[in-house]
Amino acid sequence: MAHYFDHNASTPLSPHVLAVLAEAEADLFGNPSSVHGFGQRARAGVEAAREQVARLLRCPAREIVFTSGGTESDNLALLGALRATGVAGRHVVASAIEHPAVLGACSRLEREGAAVTLVPPRPDGVVDPEAVRCALRPETVLVTVMHASNETGVVQPVAEIARIARHAGALFHCDGVQAAARLPVDVRAIGADLYSISGHKFNGPKGTGALYVRDGVRIEPLGAGGRQERERRPGTENGPALVALGAAAEWLAAHLDTETSRLAALRDRLERGLLDRLPGAAVNGAGSPRTPNTTSVRFAGLDGEALAIALDLAGFAVSTGAACAGGSVRPSHVLLAMGLAPGEARSSLRFSLGLGNDEAQVDALIEAVEAAAARQRRKPAAVGRG
Ligand code: PLP
């Protein structure tokens, strides 16, 4: 039986969420904007889900805009906030380790006439708030730094960065796609103006997400159409999927404490096992605050891609970096930005744990990595790109 260690790429629906989704698909098919009873029941479902998501992020429900996922939330935050005030001549500060959903939106803004400064992290994977402060200009209108890295799990000092942005009169957007699924999040305590999350990272349905938009922050919708989501995201809401997203958010809020300590113990067991058994193995971002479910390990002299394929054949799903970068064999921009050499970045694997994982699976994974590494060392032809 295959074991799944790639929960930062996506998670399965939990049985509870699956049951909620199946029931909602059957019952809540009405258009939430329709005035009849079918529509009103769907509307009630969507608004209850908004309350559940708001409780997860500790904000009022009116500050939640539903989207199709993390990518759309990031795009809506950056493009929407800048277009609301005019893009040309404005300046954005982003960390160099952002997800392509943020970096791609930055490139789009550059094409529309904005300037973008990318701030590299320190070698420990942390974005230094002082480096963000140094990147600010009088025309900076937005700072964006992710809450936790999808690749290393390193948690960023986002409250401090938010204070620096606010002091400079800039908005602060935080990509919380990985953090909201693994850490307690309080968007107001952080001081975020905009905060992105994605349902499929915490056992909710794909195609669902949300953007927290602080009261008073203006964003222009990305598309044209109806007046849904208080005129910020046109299009008929996917009522059943949002109801399932709400159920996933509620479950997470209720179980976060127990689940994070369980995952942290499994992650530590995995790291100990790998470092003990594989000479030259090292954790990227070790020593920095990290999400409890993620570890990025480099295996000196080995090829991460070949290891991931061998592990897949042995029944273990792991990642060589950001799965969202889609089949690319380029070394991870995150690990390179942390100062790793291309060969070191290519020797890295990301293991991300979640609901279904247990100690027996972790122990089996350690054995499988050791065996795959031993086989690769016997076949030096497979090694050595970069
Ligand atoms: N931001 C981060 C940090 C992510 O890890 C991901 C997905 O991996 C995204 C954004 C994109 O989210 P989605 O897959 O919901 O579009």
List the helices and strands and how they pair.
Elements: E1 3-4, H1 15-27, H2 37-57, E2 64-67, H3 70-85, E3 91-95, H4 100-111, E4 115-119, H5 129-135, E5 140-144, H6 158-167, E6 171-175, H7 187-190, E7 194-198, E8 209-213, H8 228-231, H9 239-277, E9 281-283, E10 294-299, H10 304-313, E11 316-317, H11 333-337, H12 342-346, E12 348-352, H13 359-378
Parallel strand pairs: 1-11, 3-4, 3-5, 5-6, 6-7
Antiparallel strand pairs: 2-8, 7-8, 9-10, 10-12
Helix pairs in contact: 1-9, 2-9, 3-4, 5-6, 9-13, 10-13
The structure holds pyridoxal-5'-phosphate.
Return the average pLDDT rounded to an integer. 95
CATH H-level superfamily title of the largest domain: Type I PLP-dependent aspartate aminotransferase-like (Major domain)
Side by side, the strands of the main sheet go 2-8-7-6-5-3-4
Order of helices and strands: EHHEHEHEHEHEHEEHHEEHEHHEH
Categorize the overall geometry: globular
Q: Which molecules are bound in this entry?
A: pyridoxal-5'-phosphate
Our count of helices gives: 13
Distance between the termini: 34 Å
Named CATH architecture of the largest domain: 3-Layer(aba) Sandwich
- Beta-strand fraction estimate: 5-15%
| Radius of gyration computed on alpha carbons | 21 Å
Number of separate strands: 12
State the share of residues found in helices, binned by percent: 40-55%
Q: Structural class of the helices, strands and pairings?
A: alpha/beta
Q: What is the total domain count?
A: 2
Architecture overview:
There is one protein chain. The chain has 386 residues and is of the alpha/beta class. The chain has two domains: 3-9 and 256-378, Aspartate Aminotransferase, domain 1 (Alpha-Beta Complex); 15-251, Aspartate Aminotransferase, domain 2 (3-Layer(aba) Sandwich), CATH 3.40.640. It has 13 helices and twelve strands. The chain has helices spanning 15-27, 37-57, 70-85, 100-111, 129-135, 158-167, 187-190, 228-231, 239-277, 304-313, 333-337, 342-346, 359-378; strands at 3-4, 64-67, 91-95, 115-119, 140-144, 171-175, 194-198, 209-213, 281-283, 294-299, 316-317, 348-352. A seven-stranded mixed beta sheet has the order 2-8-7-6-5-3-4, with helices on both faces. Helix 7 (187-190) links the parallel strand 6 and strand 7 (194-198). 51% of the residues are buried. The protein binds pyridoxal-5'-phosphate. Pyridoxal-5'-phosphate binds next to helix 3.
